[in-house]
Amino acid sequence: MTACRAAYLLACALACASPVKATENGGSVVPVGVQSMLPGLLMPSGNYLYNYNAFVKGFSARDSHGRDNGLGMTMSTEAHAFRLLHVADPGLTELGNLAFEANLVYTRTKLDMDYVDPSTAAGISDVTFGPSLGRHFGAWHDLFTLLATAPTGDYDPNRLANEGRNYWAIQASWAWTWYPRPDIDLSGLAKVVWNGRNPDTDYRSGIETNLEYSANYYFAQHFFVGVSGFWHSQISDDKQYGRPAGDNGNRINEVTLGPQFGWGTPRYGAYFSWKRSLYSKNTLDISQLWLNTFIAF
Predict the structure, then answer these.
(1) Given strand 203-204, what is the order of strands in its sheet?
(2) R_g of the chain, CA atoms, integer Å
(3) What is residue 145's DSSP assignment?
(4) For residue 135, with 0-12 CB atoms within 10 Å meaning exposed, 13-18 middle and 19 or more buried, which class applies?
(5) DSSP letters spanning 53-72
(6) Neighbour tally for 267: CB within 10 Å
(7) 140: part of which helix (H) or strand (E)?
(8) Is the separation of the CB atoms in 103 and 132 below 8 Å?
(9) What dihedral do alpha carbons 110, 113, 114, 116 form, nearest 10°?
(10) CA separation (Å) from 224 to 18, 40, 50, 208, 269?
(11) How far is residue 297's CA from residue 261's CA, in Å, rounded to a whole number?
């Protein structure tokens, strides 16, 4: 075994065993930060194509106290996702309007760490799909969603960067959008994620929670400006070989906030959103830039 290869495997072992990052290798099946525009408002019956484009920079890995862990880890990720949403005709159920979605993502990630070669992965990631139920009560709208993520992306346990997570996961969420007046919306989304076991590493990431929030003001010709962010955390430990992993179970805890602006109609629209970490524990200190679009067809 070459010295370079030995150093690489040692770095991989440190990444999984120490409080470098929460969840396995610091990632998640949840695209945190994407639901920053009217998450509780289900569109009228029809077919919609959404395109999400994320550019994420990780500046340093933080330990369980929010301090740089000293391993010199940085990350650069871009993701391009297509989400196909079908909203059924009203009347199928008295509870609300039914919908179904499927999501396909292309990702490219580069991870750097001191004393090892950079790790890069690019390709189609895991597929996510499932139903949702939307309700409308005048100025108040909400949406219940249940999604499954299948391990369809390529995965190699000896790489730091991977396209796929190599396990199944279930996401359940409740989102809401409220118009206190016609030119202002206040929105949020609360999500819980149950992660399956990675059979190649015997690692099970803890239960994740994600709270996204946004407020927007609408002005001339369908333009809007606002703020958005998220609080991403865990309520149970990561486990490997049946034991808690790392310090404090490698539980992630991060909060972000930033501006957004865009333009839209009921048929199509686009918006930019930028978010920056306010604090990070057991994960990377990050910034996110999103360009999201949608069209009805």
Answers:
(1) 197-198, 203-204, 239-240, 243-244
(2) 20
(3) E
(4) middle
(5) EEEEEEEEEB-TTSSB-SS-
(6) 12
(7) strand 140-150
(8) no
(9) -70
(10) 43, 17, 19, 31, 11
(11) 24
pLDDT tens-digit profile, the chain (297 residues) = 333 322 222 222 223 323 334 566 666 787 889 989 999 999 999 999 999 999 999 998 898 888 888 888 899 999 999 999 999 998 777 889 999 999 999 999 998 888 888 889 999 999 999 999 999 999 999 999 999 999 999 999 888 788 899 999 999 999 999 999 999 999 999 999 999 999 999 999 999 999 999 999 999 888 999 999 999 999 999 999 988 887 666 888 999 999 999 999 889 999 999 999 999 988 899 999 999 999 999
Both structure tokens of 213? 């929030």
Q: Which helix (H) or strand (E) holds 230?
A: strand 223-234
